[in-house]
Amino acid sequence: MNTIIKLFFLIVIIPEIIIAQKTKNNYKYNIDLLHMSNDEVRVSFSPPKNNLKQGRFIIPKLVPGFYQAMNFGQYVSHFTATDKNGKKILTERLDKNSWLIHDLNRVKKISYQVADGWDSLEKESNEARSAGSMFIKDSVSVINYNSLVGYFEEMKDIPYQITITKNKNFYASSALNYQQKNKNTDIVWAKDYRELVDSPVLYSVPDTTWLKIGHTKVLVSFYNKKERHYSKTIAHEIENILKNQQAYLGGTLPVNKYAFLIYYESSNENGYLGDGLEHSHSTVCLYRSGNMKFIPHALNRVASHEFFHVVTPLNIHSGEIQHYDFLNPVMSEHLWLYEGMTEYATIHMPIKQKMISLEDFEKSLEEKIKGMKEFDNTLSFTEMSKKSMERQDQYMNFYMKGALLGVCLDIRLRELSNGKIGTQDLMQMLMKKYGAGKYFNDNELFDEITKMTYPEIRTFFRDYIEDTQPIPLKEYLEKAGFNYDEATGKVTTLPNPDAKQLALRKAWINQ
Asked: Where do the Peptidase M61 catalytic domain residues begin and end (predicted)?
């Protein structure tokens, strides 16, 4: 039986010998959350050893998961470099997100101030705050390292050692393993910049609950200014979702550790605001409302979608994501996979696992159909994916039409295989072929999937994802015994489906 274990806050002293073993030629950062002023944090670091006359230091323009420029360098000020004697070395700010450091081989220390990107969810903003950082002294800090830590263009793929000075009562909730050097100091290591940026942390007085789902340890961490004992309530909701996802994914969750980091801000207003960002091993969720009771329900859909990202892009992704350029990224053409298929799994899993009724599933399909009609469906999904930064007005269609493409692909695979293979199986095959640390070439994925499945699937990709033909939703739903009324957008079961339709429906949604 899976159990929920309350995490107690303990002080662990790290032997200096352990620290010494990990201090190789890496980026050595210091972040001070204890002595901040005006919601600004002091950051300093020692560059890796090098023989460079100059180097370009970069703070990200944008990060994976969002497709608009956020220019995290805008929060950086008082940027200085000094040698071993404390003498200043010349630096030049090249643009919003990069600096040129002269005589880099002489630099002993680089320091700067970082302002928080948001201090309250009350203020309206078009920016995704779940990708930024906020600091409230002696209260809470939500940290995405892409807004605090940078890298040299000439020295990529180098490990990081981060030392954090913090309130003695604060706990670091993260997918990374933070260790305490003393009561006011934490240390964490990351194998490279991507892993660091992919691992946000919530610093606060702990309200945390651990779950064990199979071999996977799941941390649920909650912060609210007044409520200190709510993580267990949320964890019970998340546990049910994850158990069903475990079954849906073949009995095993493809990560050893995962963290849900939830920040909640109370409000006197009706309604609620939500913002979230998935990572390989964690999810950041920001909420604001007048009633905290809505959170478990709101998390059901969000937690499910975000956790499914452990399949893609964590285990299945292209070279553009594997070698992500934080300053000038090249976009992959496969957002239909990263977001569309993830959202499809989110609506498919509850009906396949008998968590919802057939009528509820039909309503889910109707919501996606209605949402799809709000966008320009004459655009090629591969082309729109490559131009996702320029076509923000169409981006949300990956969650609408993208999910419906998943419906049709799943039905087509089930049809061709006499019910034996669907998108669940396809994802498992892709994870075995690629998996974490490997990647596919963007222009080869459709052919690779065709080799794994059937020649007809290549036609499906060409017609409905690479080309702009309308997706055959009515035709495909009818194969599984459903009627789709294109005039009203209604999806209902056929009154007298034949044996073939019923067999396909059972293979597809277990009904």
From this structure: 301-405
SS3 300: helix
Q: Which of 398, 318, 364 is nearest to 490 (CA)?
A: 364
In 381-464, which residue ranges form alpha helices assigned H by DSSP?
381-386, 397-416, 423-433, 445-452, 455-461
Tell me yes or no: is domain 208-304 CATH 3.30.2010. yes
Q: How far apart are CA 82 and CA 129, in angstroms?
A: 33
Could you tell me if 290 and 235 are in contact, meaning their C-beta atoms sit under 8 angstroms apart?
no
How is the chain split into domains, by residue range? 22-201, 208-304, 319-509
Which residues partner with 278 through β-bridges? 283
pLDDT (0 to 100) of residue 42? 97
pLDDT tops 70 at residue 11: no
Q: Which two tokens stand for residue 416?
A: 């061709």
Tokens of 500: 């073939």
Judged by DSSP in three states, 365 sits in helix
Band (pLDDT 50/70/90 cuts) for residue 400 is very high
Q: Give the residue among 117, 79, 119, 111 at the shortest CA–CA distance from 95.
A: 79
- Distance, CA of 412 to CA of 453 (rounded, Å): 11
What's the CA gap between 343 and 306, in Å, rounded? 9
Q: Measured between alpha carbons, how far is residue 193 from residues 115, 145, 283, 488 in Å?
A: 21, 9, 18, 49
What pLDDT digit, counting tens, does each position of 117-131 carry? 988 887 766 677 999
Report residue 229 CA to chain centroid gap. 26
| Contacts of 400 by beta carbon, 8 Å cutoff, 6+ apart | 368, 371, 372, 374, 375
Does residue 43 contact residue 29 with C-beta atoms inside 8 Å?
yes
> What is the SS3 string spanning 414-426?
HHHCCCCCCHHHH
The highest-level CATH class for domain 319-509 is mainly alpha
Q: What CA–CA distances, in Å, run from 71 to 87, 216, 394?
A: 30, 35, 22
Q: Domain spanning 22-201: which CATH class is it, in words?
A: mainly beta
DSSP conformation letters of 180-243: EEETTEEEEEESSHHHHHT--EEEES--EEEEEETTEEEEEEEE-SS--S-HHHHHHHHHHHHH
Nearest-CA neighbor of 278 among 252, 250, 251, 314? 314
Positive or negative torsion for Cα 281, 427, 385, 317 = positive
Q: With helix as H, strand as E and coil as C, how does 458-508 read?
A: HHHHHHHHHCCCCCCHHHHHHHCCEEEECCCCEEEECCCCCHHHHHHHHHH
